[in-house]
Specification:
By secondary structure, this protein is α+β, with helices and mostly antiparallel strands. The protein has helices at about 95, 130-140, 180-190, 195-200, 240-260, 305-310, 335-340, 355-370; strands at about 5-10, 15-20, 30-35, 40-45, 45-50, 60-70, 75-80, 100-105, 115-120, 120-125, 155-160, 165, 200-205, 210-215, 220-225, 230, 265-270, 275-290, 315-325, 345-350, 375, 380-390, 400. The strands form four sheets. Strands 1, 2, 6, 7, 17, 18, 19, 20, 21 and 22 form a ten-stranded mixed beta sheet that branches. Strand 8 (about 100-105) and strand 9 form a beta hairpin. The longest helix has 20 residues, at about 240-260. It is elongated and about 75 Å long. The relative contact order is 0.18.
Length: about 425
């Protein structure tokens, strides 16, 4: 198809929204044929078809709500004739790190070895960020842990929501902590000695100068999950595109925390203490099937084509989480950000400030790839975030014929039901 199509499937309800992209419809009637395994659009003697991936089978008799939206194309809702392929298991950091095994830590940006052949005797989850305040609410006497700190020993690895703590003693390869003098001096001139002190705690990759984490104490280093790749010592480093890795790790954090803590609103905060993004998780059971067609409408993704274009052949398939988001840079949405920051139902996620800006760019590019009518819900922007790829494995017949009148969108809901 010239403009391609987007099929957004909800696994739990086995329902789908089909958007057939394309230019303005011709004056002649258009025939849309929905088969279990393919789509066809014909008009004026020409016919274009696209096959659906294996494992995705439509129920043509369930088609309803056919309409044309200017700028979008044809919209059609339907059900699946059978459950779609199940999502691949997402191995979180807590599941991938095991005691009594040797691991190598790599800088995700350049592949330089950060920690070599480290064996952990204990891999333990850390309590939530506000655990000390909660203890004060539970105890009728002074907090017994007020002077306690959770610092790992040499054979320990402590896991937080977006980071892990390692003991830096006897490190086989430790990145230099202080930044170069010119960088520290520049920041100090802006915010004084406090910021300079903060900058000097940053852990920097020696090769590419990317921030990997920060020093928590003289013998403890915090590494962010978006900056480091951990692999068994017997394995080898494999390159993952930066944008794909960032959105994968962030999406895993959202899914894991929403399941464990029943929270669906998050603030994305930088290591400088500023809030960069507000995120509202809509669902995590979305399966996206997309054909780019021959359209050049996706050319805005030249830097991120590894995550936005089909990975194999003309049709690509991704598991995704769907989120609403609001940017908060340059004092945008400040009042809303302050409200969320003081709301106990909102969970903060902290990353390096540079990574927060990367994530904001990825979100914006993903939003621009959606049909215009699906880009917003109220004042929030909509984004589908791929968190891992699956191998595409396929797809009666029902023909819908007629000339379509333009439909003026009035804030369509972005949730596929």
């Amino acid at each position: 198809m010239a403009g391609g199509f987007l099929l957004e499937i909800r696994r739990r309800t086995q329902s789908a929204l089909l958007v057939i992209r394309g230019a303005d419809l011709p004056s002649a009637p258009v025939d849309v044929t929905v088969a279990a395994d393919r789509l066809e659009v014909s008009s004026g003697g020409s016919c274009e078809a696209a096959a659906l991936p294996a494992g995705v089978r439509l129920a043509p008799s369930s088609c309803r709500g056919l309409r044309h939206l200017p700028g979008d194309g044809l919209h059609l809702r339907m059900r699946l004739s059978r459950p779609p392929p199940s999502a691949d298991s997402v191995f979180t950091l807590r599941e991938s790190l095991k005691p009594q095994r040797n691991y190598v830590f790599y800088c995700q940006s350049c592949g330089d070895i950060i920690v070599k052949d480290r064996k952990f005797l204990r891999v333990l989850p850390l309590p939530s960020e506000n655990w000390s305040a909660l203890v004060e609410e539970w105890c009728c006497h002074p907090n017994p842990f007020a002077r306690s700190t959770l610092h790992p020993q040499h054979a320990d690895c402590f896991l937080g929501d977006t980071f892990f703590l390692l003991n830096s003693g006897n490190e086989s390869h430790v990145p230099e902590s202080p930044v170069c003098c010119s960088e520290a001096g520049h920041h100090a001139s802006e915010s004084g000695s406090n910021l300079k002190s903060k900058e000097n705690t940053r852990v920097i990759c020696k090769r590419c100068k990317t921030m990997l984490g920060e020093t928590v104490s003289p013998d403890t280093i915090k590494y962010y999950v978006t900056e480091v790749i951990i692999q068994p010592s017997e394995g080898s480093f494999t390159t993952t595109p930066r944008s794909q890795f960032v959105q994968s790790m962030v999406a895993q954090c959202l899914v894991e925390l929403s399941s464990a803590k029943s929270t669906f609103r998050f603030t994305i905060e930088g290591d400088d203490g500023k809030i960069y993004i507000l995120i509202w998780l809509l669902n995590s059971d979305t399966l996206l099937v997309e054909s780019s067609g021959s359209s050049s409408s996706h050319s805005v993704f030249t830097q991120f084509e590894d995550i936005s274009m089909p990975s194999s052949g003309p049709v690509g398939t991704w598991n995704a989480v769907k989120v609403l988001y609001q940017p908060c840079i340059k004092s945008r949405n400040k009042d809303l950000a302050d409200t969320w920051e003081n709301d106990i139902g909102v969970h903060p996620l902290k990353f390096p400030s540079e990574t927060c800006l990367e994530l904001l760019l990825i979100l914006g590019l993903s939003t621009s790839s959606l049909p215009p009518s699906l880009r917003r819900m109220n004042s929030f922007q909509v984004r589908n975030s791929s968190y891992f790829s699956i191998k595409v494995l396929l797809l009666g017949k029902r023909k819908l014929t007629g000339a379509y009148k333009p439909f003026q969108s009035k804030g369509l809901s972005s949730v596929v039901a």
